[in-house]
Design goal:
- The chain is built from nine helices and 26 strands.
- The protein has 404 residues and is α+β, with helices and mostly antiparallel strands.
- The radius of gyration is 21 Å and the shape is globular.
Length: 404
């Protein structure tokens, strides 16, 4: 089996073909597509084959490719697949292969805006029970709209980037004075991110039917969270410094169309949503993404994205319903992916019930909130049309101490 003839069920086989941005040696960053353990230099291959869109591959981000629009995205993906599998191009492709392990992967998109949603009913209920034990777990608006907040685009980083433990204020003690220092309750959030590839005009909301054509691709995402900082600051306005210090995404962006066979019905929305959030099964749908969270090589959770209450298209329709515009490169995330069962919860806040019930690992060690040196890796895949898998790859990060 050669890199130019991957099987459908290969890890990063022809069902996936994700895009990434890499830096080969001292050369300028450019776009590549991953095939098993290699990366194909799309800038070089497209130039030799005189592809009409060759100019978009010799760039330091996917933004120029995305700006071509959904019709060209699909045509380019078809072209890439045909070049990879056609024996006539095998020699050419081989001459422009690099082992993934030999290159530096960079942030794949120039992120415009970043919005994080809160689309898992189980996660929202668990967090409500922990943070607001004397109130209903779900606020009254939760099943009527996809709740979200604007994050900080400038601190979105590529997988493999170290995460510096944040500092901030924490709840006051008996003296009423807030404590200050490094977070004691550093957490993860296993999420799925969606990359916007098509802009929209300010004042022109998208429908759920239009939303699909604005989503270019999918990444894995870890929304690192300082729970002690968050608990003190989140009333009355919500997440701020407890979230904005770092958000990690996978280096590989899988085209949204690769997940067509992974589309599933939502678990069920009751009461009925307002008309702007309603749509047909082809417009409002879940995704059968199988995720896994590993801390220091120990699996701690296996979330399923198909359990999410709100769809990606509903999130995008709601994001724009007030007239807010989209830009090429915008990123929006699902919020923590958590199911009903404890082993499918996607945050340590839930898994340890705010640190009160640490997880016992296979080694007998107890895992609470993150310690300096901990390495967190989130992986994922989805079923493909040919019986194989669409690979989401991984997003990983290591915690390093707060500055002194």
């Amino acid at each position: 089996m050669t890199p130019t003839s991957p099987r459908p069920d290969d890890y990063f086989g022809v069902s996936t073909l994700p895009y990434g941005v890499y830096s080969p040696d001292a050369a300028a960053p450019r776009l590549g597509v991953r095939v098993i353990d290699d990366i194909v230099d799309l800038a070089a291959v497209s130039a030799e084959l005189a592809h009409p869109d060759a100019h978009v591959f010799d760039r330091p981000s996917l933004n120029a490719l995305m700006a071509l629009g959904p019709e060209r995205w699909r045509a380019i993906r078809d072209w890439v697949r045909s070049v990879i599998v056609d024996p006539r191009h095998e020699e050419l492709v081989r001459s422009h292969l690099r082992p993934v392990a030999s290159v530096s992967m960079l942030l794949p998109v120039e992120v415009g805006d970043y919005v994080d949603f809160y689309a898992s009913e189980s996660h929202a209920s668990n967090v409500g029970a922990i943070f607001r034990p004397d109130s209903p777990a779900l606020p009254p608006n939760w099943k009527h709209l996809p709740i979200g907040y604007h994050g900080r685009a400038g601190t979105v980083v590529v997988s493999g980037t170290d995460v510096v433990r944040p500092r901030g204020q924490r709840r006051p003690g008996a003296d009423g004075i807030p404590d200050f220092g490094p977070s004691h309750s550093l957490d993860i959030e296993c999420e799925v991110g969606f990359i916007v590839g098509k802009a929209s005009r300010q004042g022109s909301p998208l429908t759920v039917a239009q939303a699909r054509d604005h989503i270019f691709g999918v990444v894995l995402l870890n929304d690192w969270s300082a729970r002690d900082i968050q608990a003190w600051e989140y009333v009355p306005l919500g997440p701020f410094l407890g979230k904005s210090f770092a958000t990690s995404i996978s280096a590989w962006v899988v085209p949204f169309e690769a997940f067509k066979e992974a589309e599933v019905a939502l678990p069920g929305q009751s009461p009925a949503v307002l008309p702007y959030l309603a749509g047909s099964a082809s417009e409002v749908f879940g995704l059968d993404l199988r995720l896994e969270v590993v801390i220091n090589q120990h699996k701690v959770s296996s979330p399923r994205f198909r359990d999410m209450y709100w769809s990606a298209t509903q999130m995008l329709a709601h994001l724009t319903v007030n007239g807010a515009s989209l830009r090429v490169g915008d990123l929006f995330a699902s919020g923590t992916v958590s199911g009903v069962e404890r082993d499918s919860w996607g945050s340590l806040l839930e898994l340890t019930w705010s640190g009160l019930e640490p997880i016992e690992l296979e080694t007998g060690q107890l895992q609470g909130f993150l310690a300096d040196g901990d390495v967190v890796t989130i992986t994922g895949w989805a079923p493909a049309a040919d019986g194989g898998r669409v690979t989401l790859g991984e997003v990983t990060g290591r915690i390093v101490p707060a500055p002194s």
